[in-house]
Specification:
about 60% helix; AhpD-like; about 190 residues; 10 helices; mainly alpha; 2 domains
Amino acid sequence: MSNTRIPKAEITGIFGALAKSYSRRVLGRVPEPLGVYWHNRPVLKTVMGVGAKIQKWDACDESLKSFAHMAVASMIGCSWCLDFGYFQAFNEHLDMNKAREVPRWRESNAFTQRERDVMEYAEAMTTTPPTVDDDMVANLLAQLGEAAMVELTAFIAVANMNARGNVALGIESEGYAQSCDLKPLAERSTQSLG
């Protein structure tokens, strides 16, 4: 467990009991962000609501969204998101050899060109200022189609919101991947982007 910048609140009440019960059933524990966000339940409910709605999106391939999310988390340095993303990829039966390589995707031979294009796009959206260009979007649009491209873009934007929020609040990895005996994630490359 990490030292969050805002101490975790005691999760109480009926909504709290439901949230803890659901978390324990699905994740095996109550995640640290729940206790931090509990200080402002309207924010928590909104973040959880957005997360639940995103799970219903199906225009873009799940593995592409997973790799994009993990690329964002790796670039921002959100150990919680990266750990949880790897755990989630495992539970969704995605290619774990690829998932573990996301932090060093530029050097890895594991990925298809489309997967590389998606992770490049995720990183381009994540840099400040964003470095997305017309050619990058046109390339992905031709590969994915309009609906999937819009979904991927929104998914990456939400991943940025969550990862940046977790880093700012000091929320760190809780060992989800280790709890499944998953191989460690590859280390992020020090090779420059571009």
